[in-house]
Design brief:
Layout (H helix, E strand, L loop, with lengths): L2 H33 L13 H21 L3 H19 L5 H20 L6 H9 L4
């Protein structure tokens, strides 16, 4: 695969998996955190529902937006990877594979994005160029 196609694939992964996460999962949690009742959220690892909702909102909304922008991409994928691992292997552990499928797909995509980085079409690249370093 030539570099241009690689960079386009990276952009596509970031836009699709960042955008879908932010819109379909993160925005609702973020708004619930700001305006709703966070006590109705799952209590993950005994941290309490408010802390669990705060961490999930940060990952699924803030980090997903960073992913879309290609800003601090590898750093932004870490909370997303952790959140999807918790969803697949803790929240949905007793559930059938079909119920875990979405979390596993997101998890796989975020690991791939972490490994390949943000690519050419990203704010990370623009910042690196201004600093004189590579992406």
């Amino acid at each position: 695969m030539d570099q241009r196609n690689f960079d386009l694939a990276s952009l596509l992964l970031r836009l699709v998996f960042g955008g879908l996460m932010a819109i379909n999962h993160g925005y609702g949690k973020f708004m619930k955190l700001l305006t709703g009742d966070p006590t109705k959220f799952a209590d993950v690892f005994g941290m309490g529902p408010v802390v669990s909702l705060t961490l999930a909102s940060f990952a699924e909304f803030i980090c997903a937006i960073l992913l879309i922008l290609g800003l601090r991409t590898r750093l932004a994928t870490i909370p997303l990877i952790i959140t999807m691992a918790v969803a697949a292997f803790y929240i949905h552990w007793p559930d059938p594979l079909k119920k875990k499928e979405m979390a596993l797909l997101y998890l796989t995509a975020y690991v791939a994005i972490y490994l390949i980085g943000s690519g050419w079409y990203s704010l990370d690249r623009l910042i690196a160029e201004r600093r004189g370093t590579g992406v």
